[in-house]
Specification:
The complex is a heterodimer of chains A (484) and B (93). Chain A has 15 helices and 17 strands. With 484 residues, chain A is α+β, with helices and mostly antiparallel strands. In chain A, the strands form 4 sheets. Chain A has a 9-stranded mixed β-sheet with strand order 3-7-8-11-1-12-13-14-15. A 3-stranded antiparallel β-sheet of chain A has the order 6-5-16, with no helix packed on it. In chain A, helix 14 crosses helix 15. Chain A is elongated. With 93 residues, chain B is of the alpha+beta class. Chain B is built from 3 helices and 3 strands. In chain B, helix 1 packs across helix 2. The longest helix of chain B is centred in the first third of the chain and has 18 residues. The chains are: A alpha+beta (484), B alpha+beta (93). At the A-B interface, strand 2, helix 1, strand 9, strand 10 and strand 17 of A face helix 1, strand 1, helix 3 and strand 3 of B. Strand 2 of chain A pairs parallel with strand 1 of chain B, so a sheet runs across the interface. The structure holds zinc ion (ZN). The site of zinc ion has 8 residues of chain A, from loops.
């Protein structure tokens, strides 16, 4: 059966490092980088006889994220030990939460490319400690003779957000991850930098024939280090599972790792992969009892969330849903947009430029909006010059380039490069005359009813004036001249 | 009832290599321990909440303050094998 004969079922597990100053159970710094094994202490190294003490900020951040994901906060919550043997864990167990997580039963709305939305369930949010980093003495883990461990990240607080298996395509999975990331950034509980590992995503995926009620056997995909990798890994796995099923094979429930270079998922099956975590309550930490007053306090501290901000942009400024969605997908981009609005009134024009030239340049330069060389008030200044007719929309793109390169204001660039629009009818009329005389064929075509020929003549006038002629005036004068 | 197979399974999970005699011995010992703990089953726990912690304490927190940890030298002082400031571990897979 071709791929489209199967329904795809996807659930995501998102891990996000929380933005605390210190680790979850000790006072070591969470700062990124640092020489190996210098942000460590007896507690996070798992030395005998030490006692963990919970960082209150971690609980508050987890509650904040839980509430922003529309979860119910647990009245009673505790930590458990998840036992597994791997050298990135100094204790051979990870302190996590098993049956009584901090938050459960949430949901978020995701935005799809066709403009529709869909509700995705959030099963739970729980707190846990991050593991260390392994460096293998060899090209890959299996080729390495030995490995080396850095425990700086060990004990950095994480929340794991588990979704319901509600997604039906890689696109929906990406939209879900986009929204989770936006929510975590808006609530300022995490930086969500995938490249620094502060946002990570594993995916559970299975296929079933359309109409079948039961889920098919799933595989768990790991090691996707970007949004693009998530989509590509899911697409690959759909093809792989479909061909296994087509041949009458059975999907094996297993963990598979995404190999970015080869563009394939590979089985991680091995003896060590016996998923037997033997969870039990962490005896070194006491339970948490969370009363309504505390929940209310955290709820009151929530900022405006992406969906509300989007609705506000639509309601207050009449922006199309799509534009508002793109702009509010990142808190920083939304702030940039708001800043522009303080200096220029036409929200739709700002949205066009932000979503067009600005995002195009940011993506091409692999830059974040916070690294944008053009200040919002300067972009607003550029738009004001177009509105006043000082420059044409076409020249504005040249000016934008200059602003991007130099960080100067639009006025400065226009002045330096002499880009002021020519609106003087006398000056333009002379060039119109010249162009009409030089292109008798086009003039004839136009007179014969080929309206399009005027476009060529307009283009010639613009070329003569290096794009500085006011297009409205050019059109008007050309028409007058030709219709004479 | 713990079987020899269970002992082999937990031994694998704990990376313990056991001799045949040890497997027999631990099967017996683990069963004795569980039998002893079975005494608890005689209690009526109908209306008792599961215990999350033996002490009646909750909400013990510290504030989010970072302090310097230990030096790299101190961190690695007891490591059986180290390299360039890292803990060195045997081949993983
Ligand atoms: Zn520490």
């Amino acid at each position: 059966m071709p791929v489209q004969d199967y329904e795809v079922v996807i659930g995501l597990e998102v891990h996000s490092e929380l933005k605390t100053k210190s680790k979850i159970f000790c006072t070591c710094t969470t700062e990124f980088g640092g020489d190996q094994n210098t942000h460590v202490c007896p507690v996070c190294l798992g030395l005998p006889g030490v006692l963990p003490v919970l960082n209150k900020q971690v609980v508050e951040y987890a509650m904040k994220a839980g509430l922003a994901l529309n979860c119910k906060i647990a009245e009673f919550s505790k930590f458990d030990r998840k036992n597994y043997y791997y050298p990135d864990l100094p204790k051979n167990y990870q302190v996590s939460q098993f049956d009584l997580p901090i938050a459960e039963h949430g949901q978020i709305e995701i935005d799809l490319e066709d403009g529709s939305t869909k509700i995705i369930g959030v099963t739970r949010v729980h707190m846990e400690e991050d593991a260390g980093k392994l460096v293998h003495a060899g090209a890959t883990i299996s080729q390495a003779d030995y490995s080396m461990v850095d425990y700086n990240r060990t004990g950095v607080p994480l929340i794991e957000i588990v979704s319901e298996p509600d997604m039906r395509s890689p696109e929906e999975a990406k939209a879900y991850l986009d929204k989770v990331k936006a929510i975590l950034q808006y609530t300022e509980v995490s930086d969500c930098k995938m490249e620094e590992g502060s946002l990570r995503c594993d995916a559970n995926i299975s296929l079933r024939p359309w109409g079948q009620k039961e889920f098919g056997t799933k595989t768990e995909l790991k090691n996707m280090n970007s949004f693009k990798a998530l989509v590509k890994a899911l697409e690959y796995e759909i093809e792989r599972q479909a061909s296994v099923l087509d041949e009458g094979g059975r999907i094996i429930q297993e963990t598979r790792t995404w190999d970015e270079n080869r563009g394939v998922t590979l089985s991680m099956r091995s003896k060590e992969e016996a998923h037997d975590y033997r969870y039990f309550p962490e005896p070194d930490l006491v339970p948490m009892v969370i009363d309504q007053a505390w929940v209310d306090r955290v709820r009151e501290s929530l900022p405006e969330l992406p969906d509300d901000r989007k609705k506000r942009l639509v309601a207050e400024y009449g922006l199309p849903e799509y534009d508002a969605g793109v702009i509010t997908a990142s808190k920083d981009l939304a702030e940039y947009f708001d800043e522009c609005l303080k200096h220029f009134k036409d929200a739709k024009v700002i949205a066009n430029w932000v979503m067009g030239e600005l995002l195009k340049h940011l993506n091409a330069g692999d830059k974040d909006i916070t690294e944008c060389p053009i200040k919002p008030e300067h972009l607003a200044g550029l738009l004001a010059l177009i509105e006043k007719g000082t420059i044409s929309g076409k020249i504005a793109k040249t000016v934008f380039e200059g602003m991007w390169e130099t960080g100067k204001t639009a006025e400065k660039i226009v002045e330096e490069q002499g880009l002021v629009q020519i609106s003087d009818e006398g000056a333009i009329a002379a060039i119109v005359d010249q162009v009409v005389t030089a292109n008798p064929q086009s003039v004839e075509d136009y007179k014969a009813g080929k309206e399009r020929a005027i476009g060529f003549l307009v283009g010639q006038v613009m070329k003569e004036t290096k794009g500085k002629a006011n297009p409205g005036v050019v059109n008007k004068l050309l028409k007058e001249r030709l219709d004479r | 009832m713990i079987t020899k197979k269970d002992v082999e399974h937990v031994a694998l999970l704990a990376r313990l290599e056991l001799t045949e005699e040890e497997k027999e011995k631990y099967t017996q010992q683990l069963n004795n321990i569980l039998e002893y703990a079975d005494m608890l089953k005689k209690l009526d726990t109908e209306n008792i909440q599961p215990t999350a912690h033996p002490l009646p304490i909750n909400n013990v927190f510290r504030s989010d303050e970072a302090k310097p940890g230990v030096s790299n030298e101190a961190a690695l002082a007891n490591a059986p094998s180290k390299e360039e400031g890292y803990f060195r571990v045997p081949k993983i897979v």
